[in-house]
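Repro:
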Amino acid sequence: SEMCIRDSRYPYDPAAFDLAGVVLLLKNDFSSAVIAFQKAFKINPNNAWLHAKLGAARVLTGHTLQGKKDLQNAIEMDPDNPMALRYLAFLAIQENNLPEATMHSERALRAFGLPKDTINQAHFDLAELYLRMYRYNDIIDLLGPAVRNDAIDIPERTKLELYGRYMDAAIATNRPIAVSYTHLRAHETGRNL
């Protein structure tokens, strides 16, 4: 992996080291990713995304204090950096600080800028935090637009998770729902099942 970090063609290009760091993260070579991001950071220290990536890599190597500082620096530079917010949420969960984790997760989801009627892993992570804090109505509000989107284009397994989480929250709040298993659609109705 040292070969991925060394690029004699572009020794002063932070993008080369940044790309190497991303590739190393994807290969779960977190220690080498830290080295690559540090090299990019030395060339371009005012880049919020480099702070976030370096912080994430450090967190993944177990250097949580330094990683948290890097993530907080990223937020100071770019308050809506979704990567920094997601990893700060992860650290808050590790510290069992669910309100802080929820705050970071909500901000990260807004920063992604996705349409309200779609879904990604950030939605499920936030729904899990809401569940742990018994905030069932928030789960319904979060997942409801995607549940009601008949044209949502996601894998069937993701649909099942979406509808399952939604129904669990609806049942916990005694909210009436109806489910069409033929289309894997769920929506609120005025009647009980």
